[in-house]
What does this fold into?
Amino acid sequence: MRKAGKWLALGLVLLALVPGVNLVANPKTKVVLILDQRRGDQGLIDRTVEGVQKAAKDMPNVEVQIVETRDASEYADTFKTMIRQWKANLVITVFEGLTKPGLQAAKDNPDVKFAMIYSFIENPPANVLSIKYKDSEAYYISGAMAGMRTKTGKVAFTSGLDIPDGREAYNAYVAGVKSIRPDVETTFSVVGSFEDPAKGKEIGKSLISQGYDVMCGWASKSDWGVAEACKEAGNAYITGLSGVMDLRPKYGAAVIGQNGVDFGISAYDVIADFVKGKFDGGKQELRTIATGDVGMHYIPTEKDGYTKDQIKKLVQLQEDLKSGKLKLN
It folds into this structure.
């Protein structure tokens, strides 16, 4: 029996040396999604979660964990726990708040891959993929919609915080408005949070009282309040960061367009590539209308209050941005 066991062990060793033979059947790909915002925003966070969960459903060997950690003092320990104890081999983060602790975790764990969604790392290390979005393309279309639909000639833009990304989206929005009606007045309003619908509604009502009849949001969950104010006043609202999920059932005819980015597509693509053995670390990847995760989430119809010519114009704008015929600064 000892001799038989010896030969069996030797056989297994030799078999393991044969090219193409893997004695570990269907090893699991362990993916952790780490969030610093709560789920339930009906926007980018929820769509990222859906993208990761869809990957686990579509790819049998993918196992996922989703972790919410809102206390900055816990970020480092969260990364350590998921990597060293749960043995994650792909870590996905969302938004800039997790970039610094994520980069430290990547440095400490060079064999683990990190995909950082909506981060701005120009020269990331080899095990980090930084993903950014040209969401200005979507906001240009939102601006065109606002220019088409305003009756007062005054349209507004609400941002969660006054930060460069929000200003960039606003500038594209203004350019879109002016491409339709150069005479329209625009304004930039700051909610002060991405998670405060009550404050969003307060700002929305204030803007309405000043004659702004179309509003576009870059404030995520706070924009729910802006949309609610528009619904109550019979005004129009174009969803942005808050509008990856279809908000028409909740806010009805107030919603005249849903344009923006979709982190869920990006997360799914990263996992699918990783399973295939592909990971484009060491670079910053730009996602655009051409990659499919930026743009109109649905094509508006005449029921949404647009004319046939306006709908045709909006579709053409998206196609021109996709092909590169129309380029934004």
Q: What stands out?
A: The CA atoms of residues 55 and 268 lie 6 Å apart. Residues 164-180 form the longest helix (17 residues).
